[in-house]
User: Fold these one by one.
Assistant:
Number 1:
Amino acid sequence: MAGGVLVVDVPAGGFHGKVTASVVITCIVAASSGLIFGYDIGISGGVTTMGPFLKKFFPSVQRNAAEAKTNMYCVYDSQALTAFTSSLYIAGLAASLVASRLTATLGRRNSMVFGGCTFFIGAAINGGAANIAMLILGRILLGFGVGFTNQAAPVYLSEVAPPKWRGAFNTGFQFFIGIGVVASNCINYGTAHHNWGWRLSLGLAMVPSAIMTTGALMISDTPSSLVERGKLPEAKLSLLKARGKDSDVEAELAELVKCSEIAKAAGRAPFLTILERQYRPHLVMAIGIPFFQQVTGINIIAFYAPVLFKSVGFGSDSALIAAIILGLVNLGSILVSSFVVDRYGRRFLFIVGGIQMFVCQVAVAGVLAATTGVSGTKHITKGYATLVLVLMCMYAAGFGWSWGPLSWLIPSEIFPMKIRPTGQSISVAVNFGTTFVLSQTFLTMLCHFKYGTFLFYAGWIAAMTGFVALFLPETKGIPLNSMGAVWERHWYWGRFVKEQLHCQGNSH
Ligand code: BGC
């Protein structure tokens, strides 16, 4: 024992540094779960600007838009319309909390399969919706779907990836979210001019869910999850697949077994265990990171990019194109992140991305204030609208290499095995809960605070960047079961985790 922390026999540098073809394919398949979340993010923003959709389900909003009789920041200010977008998040929140149980007892992979199937049914109902009740029912099922997949997939990726490249592998999840966003924006662009276009946009959500569900059915569960569920031969097989057939996986398997036994011996319900003092830093991060991710204001940009661009004077088509450009920039920056995250570390990306987003939000507020006037009634000129788009692209790039992928990575890598699914659940629930509140209030906020809305988010970005600088230890390259050491060495968190027994020992 070192400093009261359990010692596990992990070789220096951890186990298994190798990247095998099998681990790459498995992780791509698992990461593709992000597709359904991304598809929905993009689709809901787009259909809510489509005339026939508004006419059928939200006629008063359509009248406002057609007559343009209100101040341009307020055209889409409707609680019912916002409820359409955000109902998914409430359902997702509830599902993510249940998901930790399912993920622990039935495995990470089965949670992904379950989530994919639920999403598929929701997409079918939405595509065929005859009234608003069907529309909301469909969205609730979509919410259940992403609640399960967002909880299980990041944990899956962190458990299977070689520690040295865990950041890059886990970033794949956000990358697929980004692909989903761009695909749905393109589809919206193609369907926008047809009366039934919104049906196609919503119904096509069945495609990404079919892709990810089929993929998930073909991969095996993570070694940790199989060990936890007492399936040792399968766990060994899964380890051999991930590390290569010729690898010696006995030591790693023995360590997983040891950690699982300690977890079982502790015997408390995971939602109680996580409240223990020794897990305070973990819990703070599982709540703080997703909360901060949302108050960067990303979804305001993502959901409402078309609405936003239309509100500040772009035509419908150019608003959708602007949303596509934004999505592509975001995608490129996620790729950059995957190359950098294991080299320069998580903290570096958080801080650089934070500064970049802060500057952009302040600048957007400045341009809108100067051009649309205090009342928001003046129309923005084409030149300034383009400047807003450029600034938003720079903002999206900042998010794409920092808070986007890292908010899925950090909660999935900091927890010990016994409470990892619980930690991830809390994190997804906070993510969805915050998204719900923000999306419910954003259009009203935009209507009343106008450009000041962007300053509100800039303030949060400054706060979260300071938070990371002070409180988040660097986790790059550390094997999951040795993560305890990073908290122990931390100037502030050290006092919470010292003298604790858990299976994240600083053994080497
Ligand atoms: C966030 C979503 C966001 C998306 C944008 C995700 O990481 O959790 O709320 O819409 O990134 O690409």
Number 2:
Amino acid sequence: MAEEERTGRDFIREIIDEDKRTGKHNGKVHTRFPPEPNGYLHIGHAKSICLNFGIAEEYGGKCNLRFDDTNPAAEEEEYVSSIIEDAKWLGVDWEDRLYFSSDYFDQMYGWAEQLVMQGDAYVCDMTAEQISEYRGTLTSPGKESPYRDRPIEENLDLFRRMKKGEFGDGEKVLRAKIDMAHPNMNMRDPVMYRIVHKPHHNTGDRWCIYPMYDWAHGNEDSIEGITHSLCTLEFENHRPLYDWFLLKLGVYKPRQIEFARLNMTYTVMSKRKLLELVEEKLVNGWDDPRMPSISGMRRRGYPPAAIRDFCSRIGVAKVNSTIAFELLEHCVRDELNRTASRFMGVLDPLKVTIENFPEGKTEMMDLINNPEDQEAGTRKVPFSRHLYIERKDFMEDPPKKFFRMAPGREVRLRSAYLVTCKDFVKKDGEIVEVICEVDPETRGGGAPDGRRVKGTLHWVSAEHAVDASINQYNRLFSVEDPLSEDGDWKSYIDPNSMEVLEGCKVEPAVKDLEEGTGFQFERTGYFIIDKGSRDDKLIINRTTTLRDSWAKIQKKDQGK
Ligand code: ATP
Ligand code: MG
């Protein structure tokens, strides 16, 4: 990643600067991104990816990709491959450092036996309900388990038999022996291992006991020699436990640092909720362009550079906040404005006939591919007697400020000719055709006498146009924070968040674009060729409109 901007000092970089100064970890920086393969990555994960990989790169360190696959119940191979694909697409590189927590199960088990032998862990026969009942509350201490003082030998024997599969799910757990009256509930003899007789995507049926997150995570970080273990704020009061385990084991201890999760308006961000949307078919899969998933954003046409730019602009902080969706869109427009080729496409076609242009004649017009990028060059676009323009670019009886096509009005057809509207055809009250006359002296769109026209329209030649169906996507939810509204958050899904436009007419060059190529339809928005698109029937997704509302939102926020 070559984002020079991402060198701003935040509290995490300040900590690392200080560690470098004092020679902690011999000046080494090693981070990791540890997704659980129980869903697809979302834009919140992108924040974590950019942070972890970004820091490693800035400090000449390393960052691992580690699958936190300690729960066989929810995890699947499909998620592993999608996470790899999405992280690669975002542009980060873990080289040969792709790890699985499940590869450390033997080591973790050995360490658990060590804690048992030290008298720091015990096997407990209480049910999950009893354990939670005994935990106490924030204001009252917990109660000690009746199994807490089992002799070490008995604990060791039972733990080994748990591993061998002698007990059923939930019959026994291994717990750390800390303090049932600890003010931090996480320290009240937390569960380290539970019995789950379920095959695991990586270890098959080798194991029937699985480590809990708090036990596993520090172990994994320690094994990999992570220096700074960056996680989200909800783990702040798990840190004493993270430290406790590693101190008891007497092994290398990284430093856990917490930062605020990304929340975004008009979006839900947890994998569990996104999975609900997918399973209940409220969206068309994880890569539905309305999803905040990385795969959805890719399919919608958000470039990876725009997502990285967004992550760098939001920065990292210690306080949770909600970022406006419009900022992400702003980053997308910014990137696409610089990089996307321009084409002409008519979403809602209205026929135009140029009565003084010969039938059957085709002239090739030169159009600029990207005014922001001289090197992008020009292309030829066919012009003929029968054209399409956008229905909303014509008005029979226009108001004063309407500068587009109207009876008697001269307008420019982009990079082609000036034409004057002579007449129109109406059928059942609807305008079905506009008749124009071209000024042949204005080829290219300029008048030799220097006369000015106010309106410039995009157009396509009817005979050469390619048919397209265009999916227009809006925000999935109609309210800023569906989770804080009354009732079911899913009832705030906007039923019009996906609109399919059939019969769109686009210039022929668009059919040569490959699936996944983003571009601009002039005056209309940014688009991308969708999967399943064919030469004779293009399927196009709208990425975003051209109008950027970010500045307005910023102003509003500052006024608050
Ligand atoms: P979710 O709540 O969406 O299920 P998670 O935290 O359970 O997310 P993990 O797979 O455990 O998902 O996350 C991998 C990494 O990404 C973790 O380090 C986690 O802290 C980070 N992460 C997840 N969601 C966000 C977010 N919204 N903002 C920033 N980082 C996030
Ligand atoms: Mg998680």
Number 3:
Amino acid sequence: MSAKSINVLGLETSCDETAAAIVRLTPDGGPSGLRGEILSNVVLSQIDLHAPYGGVVPELAARAHIDHLDRLVANALEEADCRLQDMDAIAATAGPGLIGGVLIGLTTGKALALASGTPFFAINHLEGHALTARLTHGVAFPYLLLLVSGGHCQLCRVDGVGDYTLLGTTRDDAVGEAFDKAAKLLGLGYPGGPEIEARAMHGDARRFVLPRPLIGHHDSGCDFSFSGLKTALRQRAVDLQPISAEDICDLAAGFQAAITDCLVDRCRRAMEKFADTTDAPAPASSKRLVVAGGVAANQHLKHALEDAAHRAGFTLSVPPPALCTDNGAMIAWAGAERYHAGCAGDADLDAPARARWPLSEKIF
Ligand code: KG4
Ligand code: ZN
């Protein structure tokens, strides 16, 4: 366990953002016992590269990561006014994600660590999302986590670094994927979440009441399902042809409302479970629901979850939108937490790149 501040360089290349960041972790009391600072956070989005295809093209993503990562690392060091030698550790995403991209960040991170004689941490991208609220809000363990991104949709209990218990997951699409597919279906741009949210703001959610899959199914635990909702949206859009701008806004509002209701319902169940499984009766202030991943940037969802959390006696913590979507700071912070917790990084130099890597599965 380290008592001094530690600086960590983090690299993220698992999808369509090339990112490098430097964070500082200082052990200083507070609810989590740690203070986090972002010294630099450089993100290069590949949205324009993939937009014409309506989704991420893995080979193009990997090539773009190769072209830009070195420069972004240099920028991150410069912005933080640091040298590589000032880093106490280097962390890179080792999965889950698009394997070509993961390989580039992981190999770059290992090479920088070996060349500078710095400890290396191979990070699960989902752990990066899961721990971000400790960097931004100093949240203490344990907490309930709703992880909603382009590739993932899960509810889990977080009891410590590397200590995650899955409470529910999606049976088909991830929620961000559902937003992206819905947007494509309505002729909107990529990524779909922000497009749907912007149209929904001008739409009437009551005009098209779409299904809320699994709500009311008591044997479904905290699982999610979105594919039926997507099919229902497609059917409504087909029935409306030719579709007007007003129809699109109303459909987007109806879709967003249905997704929000599903997520709120599952979170309500998970909050009940969390309260039942927490050993000591926790004071109200310590019951916390954290939302992470790209979809957490959705303000309509955030307000609905705020209300549900309040009713259940929980506090809601959502990192700012730029730290909800993929970034290097979340990977650097996960590395800093692992370093601080005394997790040895030596074996991480042998870590393979992984396309799939469930959060509840221990490291390699
Ligand atoms: O976490 P993230 O940046 O990448 C993954 O690890 O997947 O999440 C990207 C996902 C995309 O599916 C995108 O449509 C969704 O997050 N997203 C949103 C919003 N902003 C991004 N979904 C709904 N509302 C938003 N405002
Ligand atoms: Zn992500």
